[in-house]
Amino acid sequence: MPRGRKGSPQESVDSILLAISRREDIDPNTMSHYLDRLDEEWAEGAREKVLHLLRSNDALAQAAALRILSELSTDFDLEGLEDFVTDPTVSDLAKLSLSPILKELGSEMADEGIIEYLNDPAGAIRQMQMRLLELVGQNEMGVETILEDVVSMPVERRFAFINWLGNSNDPRAANLLVPLLENQTGKVVMAVIDALEQLGPISINQTIPALNHLIATSSNRQLKQQARTVLGRLTMQSMLGSEDAAMMEARQQQYPPYQARVSSIDGSGTQLIMLSWQRPDGLIKGVNILYHDQKGIKDCYGLDEMDSEQWDNLVEDLDEQGFSSFTVSFDYARAVVLEARALNRRTRTRLPIAYSIWRPLTEAGLRDKKAQASLPATHLEPMEFNAETVALARHADELYRLKEFSSWLYEPVERIEPFISRYWTAQNAFPASTGGRRKSKLKVQEQQSLLEELVDDAEVALIDDKWRATYAARLLRQAALLQHVGQTESVPLMRATATLLAPESNVALREQAFPSMLLHVSIEQGPLRLMVESLRSGSLSSFPVEFFQQD
Questions:
Q1: Superkingdom of the source (predicted)?
Q2: For 451-460, how does the pLDDT look when each residue is reduced to its tens digit (9 = 90+)?
């Protein structure tokens, strides 16, 4: 992919390839500079030199070649890469390592198609599998990369891979097996339990905590019984005291906390939790978890080998994308994560595979209920229902002055869309305001009258007890976050508003400021919201073009 940098860097292609093949401490700016330089010479011999590196038996050189090819290869390189695969003088491992790049370029040789060109298919696949275990042993990111592919495999291939892991006699295989206990079908989990037993005592430091966790959290009686049986046999096979040693070793593998951040809750009930830890080498590893208050953990992805500046840049980038966040205590952030995971269980929403990988870090030391009970509250209690609370809640429209409520509009947007359309389509029907100040004032009055009428209709049609309970809970969670970070000025107003909004208050919607204000803003900002939703869905065909028409 042409990278677009102009100029004449002094480094030769050979010196750049040597540097990339031998140095592991190249900073991102220098690496980008090197890739730009290689891109300039790509068609004039740089690609062939990179493929020559891939031919070598030097693991560092091969890794460098793959990194460069993954960055710079385009459709124009596909034929050359396929020729490389069909060359009988190229090693099987080098051919297999190209599979992800060929897959990205749409080659028919990717995955199984490459096997017929191998000199020793069975041996090459064994080598590739061992390389996978080497990648797994490095960090959580390697595990995440591999398991994302594993969970997308057909079930038969998944079973074969799990069986191979169980027979690998390599303790690193447990790094791949353990996360699969949490988000797969019952049959797959059964196969994973059998594979963990097959590994035996060599992975007991991971197997024992994982099986205990499965027994404590699973609702499947058959799985729980199988896990108990295997756990008993593994304990009998191992030396006396190995279970205590395994649990101690698991605790000792934790990293000291670096920083925890939590975003405010947006209008759809989504919140971002960022946890990071300090590695022994001073770099940072972390995980970002996306939580939706109706489903639980929606998404999760890990980070590793970041310095403090890169971490700060990530926080700034997320802030620009609408996920502005607060620095919070580690305990508060983990309390939010546990709340989200519990919701996954209640709603039977499958956890992302990445969260299962990072769970030992995010939930370290929180296995028993006593430890969980000591965590900070993630939501506040509503106020006592009395005249003072009712009087305070009349000022709920002031919440929209806070940036934490700027995205709080009616959800789901498709239900309020007819009201938005009626309001904005009617704008073209009002008389033009060019006839003087009086006509302009009359038009504003007519618009306001229509908006009030639509808000009244929307309150009746769109807001029910479930909606009231959902938004009341969001208000109390937002209040808990702002109180935790010391922004307490508006906390009483949020609690009072939630008290009235809750269905059990029996306070009519027309007597509350918050739902009225929310519907006003939602309808008035309708065109922008509909455009955003259309862009998300990839289609503007349903967006009413008359919204942009002017008199």
A1: Bacteria
A2: 888 888 999 9
